[in-house]
Predict the 3D structure of the following.
Amino acid sequence: MDAKPLFLYALCGSQRKVSTNRRLLEALRDHAPAGVTIEICDLIGDLPIFNPDREGAQTPEIVERLGAKMRAADGVIVACPEYAHGLPGGLKNALDWLVSRDEVPFKPVMIAHASHRGDFALAQLSEVLKTMSFDIVEEAHLRLGLLGKDEAAQAAVLDAAVRKGDILNALAKFCDHIRKNILDERS
């Protein structure tokens, strides 16, 4: 029996064009196994500031698009840097828009991090995701030290992670978790 194709939606906390976390998400996307599609969200920087008065019938169209992508996703990958010992504002804003919606409870999530630093942000991210009832897949956590390296050194770290299987193994663990839960729900 062929494995069910999976659609993973990736949220990048950094909006920089040359973000190391975006580069990590791109490596995950580019090395995803057959049958796994990863799309990197391009909506975060354009979301309006969360305001509960704009929920329901007043929800902005861009928020509805984000919600639709989250609903369609079999799983979510989140990568973010640490800004001033916390989560980047844009990512937190995107998550705030999703808090009272029904797309994310029990949705599997994988955390990827492109730095040897950032434990404050990772702890906050985990707390926010748990509060939102995401299913954090701890065994799929991927952390690579790209921060502070030039482009060539970043490429070398990513190439080594591909060769050693770190990227594929993290994705395989995440996808296995998703497929197991999908099969369990159908049983």
